[in-house]
Amino acid sequence: MGILENKLALVTGAGQGIGKDIAKKFSSEGATVVILDSDQQRALEVADEIGGTARAFFAQIEDEPSVRIVIQKVLNNYRKIDILVNNAATLGLKDKIVNVSLEEWERVIRVNLTGTFIVSKAVLPNMIENRQGAIINIASQLGSVAIPNSAAYCSSKGGILQLTRALSLDHAKDGIRVNSISPGAVITEKLTTIYGSEENASKVLAPKHPLGRLAYPSEISGAALFLASEESSFMTGSDLVIDGGYLSQ
Ligand SMILES: NC(=O)c1ccc[n+]([C@@H]2O[C@H](COP(=O)([O-])OP(=O)(O)OC[C@H]3O[C@@H](n4cnc5c(N)ncnc54)[C@H](O)[C@@H]3O)[C@@H](O)[C@H]2O)c1
Fold this sequence. Notes:
alpha/beta; 15% strand; globular; 7 strands
């Protein structure tokens, strides 16, 4: 019997990468998994791959009316949401602040930070009613330190660390735990697309991590499983840093 038996887990951005690995791991531990992604094709393929009770729903997390409709559909089907993983995000264009348009700044903050707020707000009433829930926000080591040409992304991830703490305080008495994960660079489709190949991504990014390599998605999904389960029952408002030593330098 898995440690998430009888749990309903909603994972945003599970169409690929870290979110997909989290969805697969949760399912292998007995959870019914619902994927919420803006990419219909990818989400359907992942739900198919997981099989069983897994379902895919489509929405942009920053579009509140669509998110509300999807969450209502999920609740009509399953009655409850026990676990929410806010994982979907965008990197944004890489450039200096002076060259970043207000539209691009607002788009990245809107998807990454406001999207996390929107999905959490839509799910919270059900968790409050059930007097239990676990929310896991995927931040980044770049929420704690900045890199050049990524102001909106870094700011949005720093905001997620604070939103995590604020949510944890607002809803501790409702039996809801809220934690975040700050991964360092993880080998995903996004990274290999940006750098052309896994090898190139490794060449550039691995030296920035004291462990000398990038993370595998399973090293992040294992932490998400811990935060979603009773194994972390006294944790809320915390950030789990999984960065190969990046922030210790
Ligand atoms: N990959 C890394 O190196 C790394 C490092 C630190 C943090 N992170 C964080 O981990 C999370 C997952 O990263 P990844 O590399 O797996 O991402 P990815 O880009 O490979 O996948 C993101 C998924 O989210 C979906 N998505 C994007 N925008 C969306 C939106 N507006 N609404 C709904 N769905 C949307 C995409 O369709 C895709 O399926 C993100 O929050 C990212 O910031 C990643």
